[in-house]
Design goal:
heterodimer; A: mainly beta; six-stranded mixed sheet; four-stranded antiparallel sheet; about 0% helix; about 50% strand; B: mainly beta
Amino acid sequence: DAKTTQPNSMESNEEEPVHLPCNHSTISGTDYIHWYRQLPSQGPEYVIHGLTSNVNNRMASLAIAEDRKSSTLILHRATLRDAAVYYCILRDWDFGNEKLTFGTGTRLTIIP
Amino acid sequence: NAGVTQTPKFQVLKTGQSMTLQCAQDMNHEYMSWYRQDPGMGLRLIHYSVGAGITDQGEVPNGYNVSRSTTEDFPLRLLSAAPSQTSVYFCASSPGTSYTGELFFGEGSRLTVL
């Protein structure tokens, strides 16, 4: 099964951009790359997802490497409310058996 | 908008007891799933369903049963609780059965088995 690898923790100053990396070297051709974040005592919240091309939405941008073996979640201007654990996951539909695999997650701390 | 609703939010069980964690969604989503999250770890998939009457196992299904009699509800049953099942449980849903859809999560149910 495809797995993801993320740094355990990162820090960033408030109002500066944040780049959160994710490695997924065993990604398959039909895996979509999803990012979720989890605030304390809450369920994960969808951030963004993509397949091959870079994606933008109101929350963030997703940059996907050309070989798809890595991706980067970009928060353009971090706020204190962005402090959370960020999960990079691959959503794989293998012969109808979903094998949703969550990575270890990156705990993002925002410094005021 | 209620979204995904989980009950109860907290539960304490004794070893060997049984219980059901409830999950309901009001978004007419075909796909629903259950995850567990142990301290300091990511989420692991227990069971999932791609529609009413259809369920399948995820990564860690042992000790848990599910059923999907309606589109809205996807209860998770613990038949004989064990301390190893102490965890936070999350239910999620997504529209359709495509793996491209985003997952909507409930707020979680914290279970302690003594």
